[in-house]
Design goal:
alpha/beta; 37% strand; Nucleotidyltransferase, domain 5; five-stranded mixed sheet
Length: 91
Amino acid sequence: MEAYAGKQYVGIDLHRRRSVIVRTTEAGEVLEAVRIAGDVERLASVMDRAGQCPEVVLEATYGWYWAVDALQAQTSLSRGRVVVETQASAS
């Protein structure tokens, strides 16, 4: 996988056991699409490749607090934005 220096957008579909993370360019070109086990280390590993201040959207029905805490703890995301879409807010 080649490094991409431009702004990245990250979509996370968070589930209890497994989650899907997709990183894209500003133009919508998919840089990476991975399925991970639901743990902080794997999430951080993928997010390390998302560059400085990516825009992040997280979709989850429940149990998303750990993921938001992990995203906000990462230095590269400290100035970025994390949007959480839950089942309750989607209705």
